[in-house]
Each structure stands twice: as C-alpha cells, then as structure tokens.
Amino acid sequence: MMGSPQGLPSPGWIGPGEHLCLAFDHDEEREPVLAAFVSDGLAQGDQVIYHTDVTHPAVLTGLLRGWGVDPGRGAVPAPRSGAEPLRVRPTSDPCGLRVEGEVGTVTLPMFTAALREAAAREAGDVHLDVSGLVFIDLAGLRTIVDVAGGLAAPRSLVLSPASSHVHHLITMIGWDSAPGLRLSENDL
User: Fold this and answer.
1) What is the pLDDT of residues 71-108, one digit of tens each?
2) Are residues 38 and 108 in the same domain?
3) Sign of CA dihedral 177, 182, 184, 188
4) What digits encode the pLDDT tens for the residues 85-95?
5) What's the domain count of the chain?
6) Domain check: are 54 and 130 in the same one?
7) Which pLDDT belongs to residue 24?
C-alpha cells in the first residue's frame, strides 16, 4: 500500500483510469479511506473525482483538510446539473423565512435580498428554516453569517432545523459561534 495521511491504509493498488466504489455503514468508516485515496491520487498527479449524493463539496474539502490532505488550489467542485430553483417564503410563526431548493451563484442575490429584508422587517429574532434547502455554497453560508452579525443585540438569526446539513457546514467551518447567529436545538 502507498503512503497516506497519518499512516492510514490506502487503496494503492488502484491503477490509472480505474474506478473505485466504496461501500460504508457510517462516516467514521468512510472518511479515513477517502482521505487516503484522495491524498494518494493527488500525490501522483492524478485527477481525482468524487461523486456523491450527500456530501457537499465544502464538507469534503473540510474533511480532507482535517485528515491532513490539502486538495490544493486546483480543486474545483464538479458543475451542478439539475439544480433546483430557489423558493423563499415568509413565515409568521416563528417570524422569518423558509428557503427551499438551492443557494448558489445564480440564486445568491435573491437569497441575500430576502434574508436582509426579513432582518429589516422583523423586530425580534429572525428564524431561517433551511429544512427544504438541498444545496448552499460558501457565499450563501457567508450571507447567513453576515446578516446575523448585522442584527443588534439581543436579536439573533435562528437557523432551523438542528438536523440540517447547513448546521453541519456552519459548525465544521467554525462559524457556529458567529455574533448574532443561533443554531436551533430543536426542529421547527
């Protein structure tokens, strides 16, 4: 087996142009093998493509860096096809917004405007229901943190539900303690 981060076993027997399918029961089982595989491929100058239906590119990049693998400046997520449109709806109980679909380059201006309008309209906390959000890029996450930071204390931007991938991303990036941002502990 080839060298890998932190001495982890790696699939060094995979040759150029060959494919690997990794079946796993939980993330703790997948992550070390994935990190070693990507590290070996990059070290050999290979192009590494990771297809998944559940792992957001920002999560993957953070995971790799956590295992000591630098995906490098050339790491670009594959273009998204079949992107879902963004739908933003005001909510009254609790007051705020429900977002559904995807927040990306095309939909970011609409998302930003709606979130800023909700923050200006509401006198108390602004609740952001992301249970219907299937994708959000780093700029969208930054918008959430920026709007939260612009709220005067004691107001907060409350992100719900607690089980969302958006919670996971914000926590992994380290923005969960950003001023004005509160991650809900309960689902709406």
Assistant:
1) 664 444 444 455 678 899 999 889 999 999 888 888 88
2) no
3) negative
4) 889 999 988 99
5) 2
6) no
7) 66
- Which residues neighbour 166 within 8 Å (Cβ) at sequence distance 6 or greater? 130, 133, 136, 141, 144, 159
The rounded mean pLDDT for the chain is 77
Find the largest Cα–Cα distance for the chain. 60
Three-class secondary structure of residue 43 per DSSP: helix
Rounded to whole angstroms, the Cα distance separating 18 from 130 reads 38
Is 36 domain-assigned?
yes
pLDDT exceeds cutoff 50 at 3: no
Task: Return d(Cα 109, Cα 104) in angstroms, integer.
Answer: 9
With the C-alpha atoms ordered 186, 144, 34, 101, is the resulting torsion angle positive or negative?
Answer: positive
Distance from C-alpha of 137 to C-alpha of 77, rounded to nearest angstrom: 11
Q: Which domain holds residue 50?
A: 5-66
Dihedral angle computed from the Cα positions of residues 104, 109, 110 and 116, in that order, rounded to the nearest 10 degrees: 120
Nearest-angstrom CA–CA distance, 133 and 7: 37
